């Protein structure tokens, strides 16, 4: 039961057009393994925290507790503006709110309900202002409601229709501010409404939104505008305002636009200004302002050029500031402020500069904050609130959705987990876990998270686990277990923890990716071409007791990475194009007893990473866009008989590389940041599905040896028992180190020299890109080419460019080269070479 390290998350799938809301915690990194036992969900992977998913904005109370009635946004929120009736207009870079499509703009009423108001913007929204029945929107875009509008537009607050107003500034709009019927606009433009206005301008809403003569003439971008005491206080990147030197902050006359004498100056950008009486609270990137050392947040006064003594000292930039009842609310990129740990959001006493009790613990930085008596509203690029420290392994109580105290704290990645009785078996790339030294394989107590006394260390990564009949099976990259030779596959007696000496199939691969136990048959998927004493390519059926391969042989032409079993049919997915002479593009159904290729053929148009059975459906995920003749965005539920997809079509931005069925639920995980129109990057609440049908194996599934009869005591199968290869070519492989993750490519050159095969002999060359961190799927790209020896010379150079699948896989890749004779029946490995690529 393997799980891929490409999984960033896991979420629930249901067999209809619905999926659940993310009420369970999420991880901040790849989730590779899922197991369920006694109402607890165990997750493993490569992460450091687990916390509640909230989307791109959140409302919290004065202590930082989430106010749950407000909806989730899929994406980033940059702008929050009151509608004057207790509701909010939201803007940013998002595409859905509470599961409904919204293109960078949305409206939520005072009850927290998403309204039908849904104008669309073709780019990001950075600021929103409301005057009467007009909703003004500024940002970086070229269309509004599919009509040409550049960076600034106005909509009806009633129905979202686009106003005829076309100011079309020639640069982005960063800030909008309202004073009576006047709309002030700041940004990166120099031309607006057909007239020259450098970075700041004003419109009269009472005169048809006409541009006014007000023209302070800034020298560079304006990010902040605050109206107070007859002046407009401006913040930004400028060092001149008109002809006057003004560093990043200035005051101009509200009527004439003339620069006032007030001149505190800041060394870096000012991004937010709010006024309270004669005080101005200022946030930004600066380290000095008003002649004092003030990092990111300071108090100025309208009557002085000097900063006050108020000094919360955030350790990062402040992007937005708000005021409420003697508290200054700050949003930004800090983790400490006012003498306390506060991530992304804080409330500061306006007198002392000390942090108040609000402690929302956002996952990452925040962009905007608005403070009201109904709650503190904050938006940004975060998706998680109040994360709990958990390294690579965690447990979640499914009844409450909370992270439990269980904390084995492995020091490396977890590739798979398997719950058996009162224990959780874990494999991966760790060296310590549960307070003990355990190398890549361990037994952990489900009650307290401690490692048991069982110790069977692997000398290289473990990737897959399966259990049954008192036996635990482990597959991976290893060549020894506790000093005893075992190539990629081993079995243990669960009654005493011992390595089973009579089970040694010895696949000749670098990796075993998936294991599936069905009664007395162990199905194995990996990179091998021989296993259990027989020639078998990429998949095999072994006697679960002896490890001897049966005659079962679907003969895929490339890697099988995932398997699922239903009513005597084995569904497989991977990189293959054919099973024997039958075309099957990465997804197929095989008779589990005979190996015959079944007619089931959904024909996805691209790679399929994972297959699983739940609710009497075959769930698949990959980077396909069509499957079974229908459009499906990377994930689908297929009929197990016809291969046709049902209506389930959430769509993902990157495929799910983990599908896991448990207790009638189907969880999925992958690199996606959304699932359907929801921000389900990590975990969603489980919804009960129809239980998976129980498969009763038929007697014909029993594995038998096909050569000489098995002796009473079956000897260990060692690599020498595998049929010897015919003489083959010597291989020389050279690879070139990738210096950058962009464009994340590298080249490889393969030379075949000293070829001992006769001219005209056909060989197949396969290049496999395998992630060093234990992933699968798109992390491996297979190049396959048939070559007739002699026709292209005895020395062949192949230069091929591969694209690395994801910038997060910084551990690099192994490049594996297989040269194989496709002639039947031998299908023997003729040569092998490998090299390693490490991204810098």
Task: Give a brief rundown of this model.
The protein is mainly β.
- Residue fraction in strands: 35-45%
Count of strand segments? 75
- What would you call the structural class? mainly beta
Number of helices: 0
Oligomer: single chain
Q: What distance lies between the first and last C-alpha atoms, to the nearest angstrom?
A: 32 Å
Helix amount: under 10%
Radius of gyration, Cα only, in angstroms? 31 Å
Major β-sheet profile? 4 strands, antiparallel
Shape: elongated
Which residues sit in consecutive blocks of at least 5 with pLDDT less than 50? 2-22, 682-757, 767-784, 790-840
Spatial sequence of strands, sheet with the most strands:
3-4-40-41
Question: Averaging pLDDT over every residue, what do you get?
Answer: 82
What key phrases describe this protein's structure?
840 residues; mainly beta; four-stranded antiparallel β-sheet; 75 strands
Notes on the structure:
With 840 residues, the protein is mostly beta strands. 0% of the residues lie in helices and 44% in strands. It contains no helices and 75 strands. The strands form 27 sheets. It has a 4-stranded antiparallel β-sheet, with no helix packed on it. Strands 7, 8, 9 and 10 form a 4-stranded antiparallel β-sheet that branches. Strand 29 (288-289) and strand 30 (292-293) form a beta hairpin. The radius of gyration is 31 Å and the shape is elongated. The two termini are 32 Å apart. The model is unreliable at 2-22, 682-757, 767-784 and 790-840 (pLDDT under 50).
